[in-house]
Amino acid sequence: MQTDTVRTPGMFWGFLGLLTVLRLTLAALLPLTPDEAYYWVWSRHLQMGYFDHPFMVALWIRIGTWIAGDTPLGVRLLGPLSVLPGSWALFHAARLLLPSRSWPLSGFQAVLLLNATLMLGLGAATMTPDTPLVFFVSVALYAIGKAVTLPTNKALGWWLLTGMLLGLAFDSKYTAVLIGFGLGGAVVFSPAWRKQPGPWLAIPVLLATISPVLYWNATHHWASLLKQGGRAGDWHPARAIQFQSELFGGQIGLATPLIFGLFVIGLWACFKRNILLVWLGALPLAVFIFHAFGDRVQANWPAVVYPVLALAAVEAGRRIRWAAASGFVVTALVCLQAAFAFLPIPPAKDPVQRQTAGWPEFDQKLERLAVAQGATVLMAEDYGLASQLAFNQGNSGLSVFGTDRRWELFRLPAARGEKGLRVEEIHHIPSPLPMDVLCRESQRRTVRCYQMTVVENPLGVQLPRHS
To answer: Other C-beta atoms within 10 Å of 131: how many?
Structure first.
């Protein structure tokens, strides 16, 4: 028995190490998505905030590309590497936040469930704001566990660390504020925690940690906070059934079906056994569900609560073997399809190929056309397309401009009076293809096509430069 007890942790962490190697390999194989290329553009011009999100994803990419270069692996490097320390933190958070469950088994189960979700399985091999968000939330759960279980005289430092970690999660993505509100609700309604100085002293630490993002917004007309907060102003209750279906369907897909079932059962069990996890998990989910009565909730938004749900699922005391195994199988199939497109899905309908396939060949054709037309500038209004062009044309000598208003928030060198080539995606593909239409292809099948238009003195105004 003692031998098995010693061997099991080694096998478990060895398995997570193997997963890390596989995720790093996938990160190197997959071309960047348009959003990843967009965040890479941010990393070339580090700021305290951006139009769409806070700065953390840009900082992580900047560190990764400093180590591994401006490559897909460099952009994503910190994603797979962050899962191991994040899993370690969640493993120990289970000991502190699940006192009714047997540890270390509870820690193993929580970590396996989170790693088996498609959200983390594929998401850790890509780089989005959710990547650092999930890491900082996982570590924050460990700090919260320490803060609520230690005596008052020993808990202060952990409360302060909790404030800093939740602030760093906010610096990753604004949805982290929901975890903060959940923790605040738990403190206010708990006399024992409410009387401690730690929770209240954690607030200025949190505010100091998020101050760079707040300062950037204050000096940029609150552009980012208004953009994200403005979503609440869109309200279409007649489409509530559609939005709710999309929300729950997206979570079934990202969690994988059996793990999603355990998440639901576990959160329900916490209403009787673990009120802290209810505050941390149910409050954010209630916000998303309420929002989905009048507007779309993107499938990745609830990622902020996945580490909490992994702990809640263990609290239910159900067996997780088949749920975790099915999650790893689904994730493996999706990753194999993303890397090798082994299923005969038309590229235009495959969500991964639609975003990533055929860019190197397309950029070579685009460069030749630009040279033939005497153009030195590539222009695109769509931020994802402009970002892909900037990433892939880095060595061509062509400048890339984004004409969407969000680029105005980059204080970069500008140029005017140059001959440009405007690149616009077209949805109706003419046959035969004219000379000014270029297409991305995968396995000799068309993915997307783009109209090229020569522009003299592009827009006649100064435009931000991306290269």
So the answer is: 28
Q: Tokens standing for 151?
A: 């005596």
What is d(CA 236, CA 81) in angstroms, rounded to the nearest whole number? 41
Residues for the chain: how many in total? 467
| Helical H segments across 316-349, by residue range | 321-340
d(Cα 284, Cα 185) in Å, to the nearest integer? 12
What is the C-alpha separation between 333 and 370, in angstroms, rounded? Answer: 39
Write the CB contacts of 235 (distance below 8 Å, at least 6 apart in sequence): 294, 295
**Of 432, 310, 424, 402, residue with least CA distance to 50:** 402
In the numeric block, which tokens belong to residue 36? 């990843």
> By the 8 A CB rule, do 383 and 424 touch?
no
User: Do 89 and 138 form a contact (C-beta atoms < 8 A)?
Assistant: yes
Q: What is the pLDDT along the chain (467 residues), one digit of tens a residue?
A: 333 334 578 888 999 999 999 999 999 999 999 999 999 999 998 999 999 999 999 999 999 999 999 999 999 999 999 999 999 999 999 999 999 899 999 999 999 999 999 999 988 999 999 999 999 999 999 999 999 999 999 999 999 999 999 999 999 999 999 999 999 999 999 999 999 999 999 999 999 999 999 999 999 989 898 888 766 656 778 888 999 999 999 999 999 999 999 999 999 999 999 999 999 999 999 999 999 998 889 999 999 999 999 999 999 999 999 999 999 999 999 999 888 888 888 877 788 888 888 888 888 888 888 888 888 888 888 888 989 988 887 666 778 888 887 777 664 444 454 688 899 998 887 778 788 899 988 878 888 899 998 887 665 544 444 44
* Distance in angstroms (rounded) separating the CA atoms of residues 374 and 19: 48
Q: What are the sequence ranges of the domains in the chain?
A: 2-339, 355-464
Residue 18's nearest CA partner among 332, 341, 304, 308 is 332
